[in-house]
Amino acid sequence: MSVPAIQTALQQMQALKAETAAPSASSMAANAIGAANSAVPQGGFATELKQSLERINSLQQTAAANTKAFQLGDPNVSLNQVMVDKQKAGLAFEMGVQVRNKLVSAYKEIMNMQV
């Protein structure tokens, strides 16, 4: 990362810090709206990541169960259904791998930054 890019990122971080330190009228309005929508769960990044991994696992388990049922001759499971479930599970897994790769790359980049 070049020096101007780092300085730009630092300026953006400082602007965000200043914005959070002094709440504006728009943020107060957003808080009022957020209070009205308090039924929406506020989990954060870790919760969202965990839920995504659980969804990927669920897709893989469903695909495996349908494959086994088809192999055992279950008349309620078609080959099309098995193939679609396998593709969904494979795509979800690939997406998970790519997200992990991006997270590792971002972590390495942050660790190599000079303070």
Low-confidence stretches: none
Task: Please give the domain count.
Answer: 2
The number of helical runs is 4
Largest sheet: none
The Rg value, from CA coordinates, equals 22 Å
Percent of residues in helices: over 70%
Order of helices and strands: HHHH
- The total count of strands amounts to 0
Strand content: under 5%
Structural class: mainly alpha
- Any idea what the shape is? elongated
Termini separation comes to: 13 Å
Average pLDDT for all residues? 81
Structural description of this entry:
The chain is mainly α. It has two domains: 1-40; 43-115. It is built from four helices and no strands. The longest helix is centred in the last third of the chain and has 33 residues, at 79-111. The radius of gyration is 22 Å and the shape is elongated. 4% of the residues are buried.
Quick tags:
single chain; 0% strand; mainly alpha; 115 residues
What is the strand and helix layout of this fold?
Layout: H1 3-21, H2 25-36, H3 45-71, H4 79-111
Write a brief structural summary.
By secondary structure, the protein is mostly helical.
